[in-house]
């Protein structure tokens, strides 16, 4: 775990404690998040998960904005409980009033999309060819069935895979 992330998490909590004049429970912090999300807060588990790749590629903004964004979720939960909206008024006021940062819901980091192969499925229609993701293909292998919306036939795997 990079010390800079842990230090920023701690700094955000101390800033909130000074502002609200109360103590907040510190979370477990993980760098195991993958995909397009930069960070995720799990308030009921008091857990923060961050994307190590996006941290490495966007270090300065990540530490300033993303870490504060996720800590604000935990602070809002500890202050107001679980009945609040994730990016609602309480969270926005913490971002803007406590941290002095814009209450942006999403990051704008460049994210490399994974190139996934598609599994071709067919029906009885003349142009009935449907590319399935690996995830959907595995659901079919476990018994899930998909129907063509036009002819209502069960889509069958053609045996072909196409790289995208």
UniProtKB/TrEMBL annotation:
Q: Which GO terms describe its biological process?
A: response to stress
Pfam family of the protein (one)? SprT-like
Domain SprT-like: residue ranges: 7-158
PANTHER family, per the entry: PROTEIN SPRT
Report the protein name in the record. SprT protein
From the broadest rank down, the organism's phylogenetic lineage runs: Bacteria, Pseudomonadati, Pseudomonadota, Gammaproteobacteria, Pseudomonadales
């Amino acid at each position: 775990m990079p010390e800079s992330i842990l230090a920023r998490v701690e700094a955000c909590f101390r800033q909130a404690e000074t502002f609200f004049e109360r103590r907040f429970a510190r979370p477990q912090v993980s760098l195991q998040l993958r995909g397009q999300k930069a960070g995720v807060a799990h308030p009921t588990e008091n857990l923060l998960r961050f994307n190590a790749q996006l941290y490495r590629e966007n270090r300065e903004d990540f530490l300033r904005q993303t870490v504060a964004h996720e800590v604000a979720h935990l602070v809002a939960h500890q202050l107001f409980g679980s009945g609040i909206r994730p990016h609602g008024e309480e969270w926005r006021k913490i971002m803007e009033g406590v941290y002095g940062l814009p209450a942006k819901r999403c990051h704008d980091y460049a994210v490399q999309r994974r190139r996934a192969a598609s599994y071709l499925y067919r029906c009885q229609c003349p142009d009935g060819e449907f590319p399935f993701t690996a995830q959907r293909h595995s659901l079919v292998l476990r018994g899930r069935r998909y129907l063509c919306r036009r002819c209502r036939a069960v889509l069958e795997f053609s045996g072909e895979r196409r790289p995208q």
